[in-house]
Each structure stands twice: as C-alpha cells, then as structure tokens.
Fold this sequence. Notes:
Layout: H1 3-77, H2 81-101, H3 106-121, H4 125-136, H5 144-158, H6 162-176, H7 183-196, H8 200-213, H9 218-232
Helix pairs in contact: 1-2, 1-3, 2-3, 3-4, 3-5, 4-5, 5-6, 6-7, 7-8, 8-9
Amino acid sequence: xxxxxxxxxxxxxxxxxxxxxxxxxxxxxxxxxxxxxxxxxxxxxxxxxxxxxxxxxxxxxxxxxxxxxxxxxxxxxxxxxxxxxxxxxxxxxxxxxxxxxxxxxxxxxxxxxxxxxxxxxxxxxxxxxxxxxxxxxxxxxxxxxxxxxxxxxxxxxxxxxxxxxxxxxxxxxxxxxxxxxxxxxxxxxxxxxxxxxxxxxxxxxxxxxxxxxxxxxxxxxxxxxxxxxxxxxxxxx
Length: 237
C-alpha cells in the first residue's frame, strides 16, 4: 500500500536531480554553447555572402563576354579597314579586361579563345598558340579546354614547331582520354609528325591505334592508307 507513494516521490526526486544537472551544465557551458551557435550563424552568413558574390561575378562576367562577342560580330562585318582596325583595338581591350577581371571563369577562357582566333586570322601563329594554351589551362573539365589544346597544336604546326605540336597532342591524349572530341585527329597528326621526323615505326603505331580503336571513323581509311604506303616502301615491317 505504501510502495506507490514512495515510488512516485522517488521519480520526482530523480527528475529534479536530472533537471538540476542540466541547468548546472547549461550555466557552466553557456558561453561555449553561445560561441558554437555564433560560429554556426557566422558560417551560414559567410556561405550566403560567398554565394551571392559568386552569382554576381558570374552574371557580370557573362554580360561582359557577351558584349565582347557583339563587338567581335561588328568587327567581322566591317568592310572599311580603318574602322576595322579601330574596332579591333576596342575588342582586344574588352577581352583583356574580361581576362583580368575574371581570370578563372569561363568568360576568361572564351576571351582567350577569341584573341587566339584574331591572331590566327592575322597569321600570328605564335600569338594564337599562346592564347589557345591559356584557354586550355582554364576549366580543364570544360568542353573548350581540349579543343583549345588541339588548336594550340595546329598553331604550333603552322609556325613549324612540330615538337611543340606533338607535345600538345600527347597532353590531350593523356588528360582527356580516347573519347574526347578530336582524339582521332590527334593520333593521325602524331603519325604525320612522326613521319616527317622519319620515325616511321612510331607513325605506324599511331595509325594502328586509329584502326584498332576507331574502325568507323573518317580518319581510319587515311590511317590504313598510310600504313600500307609505309610498308610498301619498306620503311617499316
């Protein structure tokens, strides 16, 4: 009969004991808890600010490169050479500003690519190569990077720097693998460069990679023809 009241009283005392300890814990560590809460709030604020700044930079850089592309279109359509020269200076200045303002964003990569094309149109192959390399080094996972690397190789070939061109093609194959755009052309170009340096064994090796790995590609027939030609001339076994 008397056990029930004593049990209820015990439970009440236990509850009060726990509450006392919790309250004591909160009093002792309230500053630390407030500090943790403040740190969490600060992190949230910093992330929010960073996100807002990143979005603002992306919008500004996109607008700037779009304006530069409009300038490019105006430049390309101009027939008067004096006006065209003036437009080119303005365009290059706009592109340089994009590169300086947003050096790690896609807008800068596109700006380097446009400058490279301007240099190529002017037959300034060294300048074009430099700009294409700069474009290839930005956003390496982006679709433009491997294309830029191949264009750098083409510019190097145009100025007679076959060793540099081969280096770019090899970098393309090493970085982007067998499924990237232009990979078959890269193998064929390496074969052709090897032929020009009289390394016929290496040339056949590159051509055979095309035949084995890309049987239905447009370059495959040319690769087969080169293998047959080199073997028929006794240059390779």
